[in-house]
Write a structure and sequence with these properties.
By secondary structure, this protein is of the alpha/beta class. The chain contains three helices and seven strands. The termini are close together.
Length: about 140
């Protein structure tokens, strides 16, 4: 929901799919504790890095029973403090439009270092489209 500081919806990505969620882009709403899951977008995480301040996330992680997800990418993953990194769920985004070219039984392989890879067949991946986000609300 571009242009929104925060919004509500059902998580459709990753292992927390179908969980009611508050999504935070710029500002944490006062009623965040009414939701079992809070998701901090890449924009919010980029601001935490820029300001060197993780206080708001630390408070939620340490003083609530809310599941916390942080969106990360290659630019941000190494900037997340270990004290937060170890206690949260991370959705690590890798942008590669060529995955659309693969057939469902083809394999996606991610090389983490020499002779150390992670693979999954495309059909085993959770696939989301624009239509999956239609129930998000402000």
């Amino acid at each position: 929901m571009y242009g929104k500081k925060y919004w509500y919806g059902i998580e459709v990505e990753g292992r927390l799919s179908n969980v009611p969620t508050v999504f935070v882009r710029e500002e944490i709403p006062n009623n965040y504790s009414n939701y079992p899951h809070i998701y901090f977008t890449i924009e919010y995480i980029s601001e935490c890095i820029k300001k060197s301040s993780w206080k708001e996330i630390e408070v939620i992680v340490n003083k609530s029973n809310i599941i916390v997800t942080i969106e990360a990418n290659d630019d941000t993953i190494n900037e997340i403090p270990q004290t937060i990194f170890n206690l949260i769920h991370i959705i690590y985004r890798i942008k590669d439009p060529n995955i659309e070219l693969l057939k469902k039984y083809d394999t996606v392989s991610i090389d983490s270092r020499w002779y150390n890879t992670y693979q999954v067949t495309k059909q085993q991946m959770l696939h989301t489209t624009n239509d999956d986000y239609k129930y998000d609300i402000k």
